[in-house]
Design goal:
UDP-N-acetylglucosamine 1-carboxyvinyltransferase; UDP-n-acetylglucosamine1-carboxyvinyl-transferase, Chain; binds uridine-diphosphate-2(N-acetylglucosaminyl) butyric acid; 441 residues; cell shape; four-stranded mixed β-sheet; MurA_subfamily; alpha+beta; 23 strands
Length: 441
């Protein structure tokens, strides 16, 4: 990530409303770019967002041997005639994508070295599922001072059962299994829309994959080679939720253009339960408060984050800001990451009534139960927020800070803007078109 001293200055209290085009998914685009490494034929990706994450992934692929050009309209052409470099350790600590290159590098070059990973500080974030699965497929993996180095003359399909449906580890095994010898079966697989988008791309490249979502089971029959593809990245469901909540928290209505309602089902169910209006129309997905006059009358709600099709862990941060406006006490139970509620202390500083604890609600046990992770928040409203100076430390928490600043009274100065640029294309410009007073300085 490019370090930057840039900040956002926000004058809050202005209602956001209007239509916004949802860009392609950051977390699907980066995986699709890595998947192009599996073939020597040209691939064309449509709807790639111009975010820093895509730029970092581009650097990774170019280092490995890809030629990449961006066309108009968010199209990206990638061709990797041969693997020029199997080691990408200098891309250390910038995001979580390099581990996904292990599979393509091993099946095409027999050798791979990836750095210890970066990404957001939202918990321990181990990669043991990735490494154990690849080792079971025949990779010999050595931990070095700042990297993992692996070799394998070829990979062999095997049965893998994940202890938790990890998105990244499921993607790692898909990217390794498609060109492995024999059949790979993943039990307890992640079935997120981004994973499904990757599967669709791999199938279009000639891979043999079946996915039984209800069973969380994926089967991959290895093939000898894959061909080039033209593939479209799904709309970003995190961006969709961010804009929707930015509207709601400021009392306005937003139309999400190009969003996929099926990918947002659990979010839509939660906001409808609060009294929010959600309608699909010819322009997109319209999301509005129950009324535009007087104090907002919305109910509190209890959510537990969970793997898809549950309420996504990346949605609780923007939602938390809106929960400060709901009547009564809402609960957020974060069951995916053990340490993803740190940002709430900033909301409390801005005037929110929030308590955080390690005690799971009695009706919602989770794998963090009985451990000392502060993963349960109680937010009591309605309250008004006041502007503040805030330092962003991760993408989704940063989005919550920006929404809080937009809905607060007075001025906020937000630093750590690079985290936002990693995940959102020209966020400040697009918020301004909806009526926000936000400036990059
Ligand atoms: N886990 C392990 N071992 C592993 C892998 C995961 O214990 O080897 C645990 C994690 O520590 C976590 C849980 O499994 O507690 C789920 O992690 P997962 O592997 O699913 O997450 P990820 O693939 O690293 C992706 C997104 C995240 C998103 C999560 C959950 C990307 C690049 N990142 O992370 O997005 O929150 O899935 O849906 O796709 C973001 O975009 O800001 C972001 C953090």
């Amino acid at each position: 990530m490019h370090e930057t001293a840039e900040r956002f200055v926000v004058h809050g209290g202005r209602m956001l409303s209007g239509g916004v085009q949802i860009r392609g998914s950051k977390n699907a685009a980066s995986k699709a770019m890595v998947a192009t490494l599996l073939t020597d034929e040209p691939c064309i990706l449509e709807n790639v967002p111009f975010s820093e994450e895509a730029a970092i992934t581009r650097e990774l692929c170019e280092r490995i041997g890809s030629s990449i050009t961006y066309g108009d309209d968010h199209t990206c052409s990638i061709v990797t005639p041969r693997i020029r470099e199997h080691s990408v350790i200098e891309l250390s600590r910038r995001n979580r994508i390099p581990i996904l290159a292990f599979g393509p590098l091993l099946v095409r070059a027999g050798e791979a070295e990836v750095p210890f990973l970066g990404g957001d500080p939202i918990g321990h974030r181990p990669i043991d599922f990735h490494l154990e699965a690849l080792a079971r497929m025949g990779a010999v993996i050595e931990r070095r001072e700042r990297s993992y180095y692996a070799t394998a003359p070829y990979l062999t399909g095997t049965d893998i059962a994940f202890p938790f449906p990890s998105v990244g580890a499921t993607e790692s095994v898909l990217l390794a299994g498609v060109l492995a010898r024999g059949r790979t079966r993943i039990e307890n697989a992640a079935i997120e829309p981004e994973v499904q988008n990757l599967i669709a791309m791999l199938i279009a490249m000639g891979a043999l994959i079946t996915c039984e979502s209800d069973e969380r089971r994926i089967e991959i029959e290895g093939v000898r080679q894959l061909r080039g593809v033209r593939h479209r990245i799904i709309p970003d469901r995190n961006e969709a939720v961010s804009f929707a909540v930015a509207g709601l928290a400021t009392g306005g209505a937003i139309t999400l253009r190009g969003a996929e309602p099926a990918h947002l089902a659990s979010f839509i169910a939660v906001v409808r339960a609060m009294g929010i209006i959600v309608e699909e129309n010819d322009h997109g997905l319209y999301i509005a408060p129950p009324s535009f006059v007087g104090p907002m009358d919305v109910s509190s709600v209890s959510i537990a984050t969970a793997p898809h099709p549950g309420f996504m862990t990346d949605w609780q941060q923007p939602l938390a800001v809106f929960l400060t406006r709901a009547k009564g006490t809402s609960i957020i139970h974060e069951t995916v990451y053990e340490d993803r509620l740190g940002y709430l202390k900033d909301l409390a500083r801005m005037g929110a009534d929030i308590s955080v604890s390690d005690e799971c609600p009695s009706d919602s046990p989770c794998r963090f139960s009985g451990r000392t992770f502060n993963h349960v928040a109680r937010i009591t409203g309605p309250v008004s927020l006041n502007g503040a100076d805030i330092e962003i430390t991760d993408i989704r928490a940063g989005m919550a800070h920006i929404i809080a600043a937009l809905s607060a009274t007075g001025k906020s100065v937000i630093s750590g803007v690079a985290h936002i640029d990693r995940g959102y294309e020209t966020l400040d410009e697009r918020l301004r078109t909806l009526g926000a007073d936000i400036t990059r300085v």
